[in-house]
Amino acid sequence: MNEVSSVQVNFLGKLFRKPSVNATSDTLWLSLQGKEVAHYPLKSMRAFARVDESVLGSQLRFSSNGTEIKTGFLQKKVTVNFLEFINRSVSEHIQDYLKTCFSEFDALAINHYPRDSWSEQIESLLSELYRYYVVQSDTWKKYLPVSVIERIEMMLKFFPLDMASLREHHESCQLRNREAFYDVVEANPLTVEQRLGVLRSNDRNMVLAAAGTGKTSVMVAKALDLIDRKLADPSQILVLAYNKAAANELKERLESKAINGNITLATKPYISTFHALGRKILREASISTQISVFAEDSYKLKQWVTKWIYEYISADPARVFDLIELTTPPVDAMQFSTKSEYEKYIRDNEFRTLGGEKVRGYQELLLANFMHVNRIEYEYESHYVTKRRLEIGFDYRPDFHIKDTDIYIEHYGTGRNGKTRPDIDASQYGEIIEKKRALHAECGTTLIETFHYEWQEKKLLPAFKAKLAAAGVSFDPMSPNEIFEKLNQQQELGSWAELMTKALQSIRVERLDKTAIFERFSSAKIFNAGKYSNILDELHSDYVDELKRQNAIDFDDMIIRAIDVIDKGEYVPQWKYVLLDEFQDISAARMEFIQCVLAKGPAPSLTVVGDDWQSIYRFSGGKLELTTRFGDLVGHYTLTKLQKTFRYNNSIAKTAGTFIMQNPEQYKKEIDTHHKVEEPQVYLLDDKVGLQRNLCDKALEVVKKIRLHEPTASIAIIARYNYLLTDAKQFIWGAEFKENIFFWSFHKSKGLEADYCILIGFSQGKTGFPNENRDDAVIEALLPSIDTFPHSEERRLLYVGITRARYKSYIIADPIAPSDFITELLTPKYDLQIASDTFKERYRKMFKCPHCEPGYLRLVKGKFGDFYSCSTGLGCTVGKARVCEKCAAPSFDMRSHSQCNNPACNNKMKICEKCGRPMKLRQGKFGEFWGCSGYGIKDDQCTHTSK
Predict the structure, then answer these.
(1) What is the secondary structure of 142-183 as a DSSP string?
(2) Mean pLDDT across the chain, nearest whole number?
């Protein structure tokens, strides 16, 4: 039996009929005349009892279930011993409570990573402990062991709850505990950043890598770490890779690294592609997973789309013009702000008619094709009946001449009010129109006129048809079969089918309905957005019906239908940890799939691993904003950056990093390299061999020089387009250089590396790099949204290419018409080795002093900032020249602005006319204004402002 301790009431207590107090090690009760009147289990007590003394006797105070109990008039002599007896017993029960408290805290914050979703639970735990401890800390220290008090005070360091500090504590503990494992799990010990990427398992986590920083190592080590620490069984871990090859690599590495970490895998984590996971879920839900022939044979899909186009045109031959517009998206010439923009557009877009002619613009294409399908024979820009010049230097040639007639057609680029493109003088243009009319009147020929505004008002072809009819031109429309045959002859049908197949795939991967298609077309300013959203929605609906007819699914269905199965509860995910590789390339459909798995699973932790600098698969649905706006679109998360690379040197890292971070939408990273060099290792060469320009010959020349010094080194030739690689391969292999030489497109080079890389194809235009053409505007509109920074995805492609090299990267460019990327790389902010006299001269011109004949400008690292100084010294009026804030070239002060000396930049920085300091744009009571940056200088204030 438990020992019983009691304390009786004193004389006054008996007089007032107050109860005595009794206790065992488990219970305290009050009794009156030997009968129990109240009962209090000690195990529910979270505070020690105490005694207050007064002339009336002792009063015992204790708490039970949050209620304070007081009982007085107790005998003083006995009360002290009784209090000690109770508190010794209460101490045991408080320690039992604390064991539970410590265990719960360890589970939430020490063994597991402290998650956002657990914060309320952790705060409640700490708040309760604080409430009990803080009011009786001295008493707790008296009755509880020192180790217990130390543990309490360690926990209460994080109250009020400070999740950041708590996570730092967790990381510190686990980095220490897991050091031996992290040292051996990979061939080299994991870096601190990699270890943190492994440890951090908040509800949502992002491991943001850079090229060569070991993100796959983090994925593998994280899965093994979870298993080794018993945080999850292997079957509770899901690892998703971008493609089958990546999934197989992860499986192989997991098995080999488990041996390194001395981990026995009775079962394995589920490592899969998204499509394979979707198929598994459908099978387990007893849904047919027969794969459509379209998914396995792209030619069959293109055949089906071609057949669909034929049936679409057969229903109404006039629809051929809808498809021409859809596949050759019109651009309103009035929207070009400069002549250069328009000329680039014409240069990079070919307008080829059904008759085979190449015409100058989209509206001429419509007119020519209309005449062709109505069998109206015409000539394009043929000689007029008389040789006459209406414009200086040019013989007059009407746009079209209808054969065997005196009928000519002119299409004018004017609005209804006579407005022209901004770069064209409307008055002069109008005078030329009048001269043309007068000439036709003089020569007795018929002139049919069409106008740009008719196209803007969507009545160009109906109006043209009426004008032709009024001139007596007869129509003999081609049959659908004849149109179809003509399209085949011109190879238009194949290109149409390819574009519409891409559109169909984009609609599937982005999960777009008709409304969403229309919204995207409208946002992209696609002409006739409503009409074309109807066409593509009809194509998609017919495609879905065809899959049903086949009783089959395609790859998109594997994901789309799996989402539906999980939502309906027909499959319940059991994964506690979900790891995603190559997250920067995830599509909207795949993200929806993952969100579904997370929502219906046992509150799993999601870790995504990716590199926003290497997001290059937008054409297959990659939605970069899911990475760059992860917090907004996915939820609050813990970020880990991998910034230590073992692949390339600091020169390559600096050049590639500076280049990619020009885009403010990309994450900022400070890349540290294991390999350090003193000289630039990114070389810029022109494509000249001797006096002749030959890209392949230049690439071969570089290969020979590398082989001369390093006969066994691996070399990769990298290009934007496959035709360049084919030419280079034939040329280099033809010179008997085959061993250890690779030929990669920029896209396919991702994930690969070589000792030396040679990057080719840097010229202007449609097939240049960057590609300047607004190609396939319809597809662009359907693809995931992209940031507005110029050539942002092409910029990421070049980053990928440069960072494939371990030692040196060679860029071979066109020196006559260099691409925008080369022009940018030629600015001082990039530490390039310019190994070309042509490019060196171009570079030197930036630093030529315009104020003296012999002088060149040199960068000086000044106490208060960098500036340029002329080499002529005091013999030149230039004291100090600014550093351009945009490209870092010299910038010379004019009266109210500083002008960059780099013509490719041409940046103008506004400066104060009064004192020469930079002007700052400010917001005032009446709107924005420019104010001198010297306004805040007390001893030399400048108050100059300007609009």
Answers:
(1) HHS-HHHHHHHHHHHTTTTT-HHHHHHHHHHHHHHHTHHHHH
(2) 91
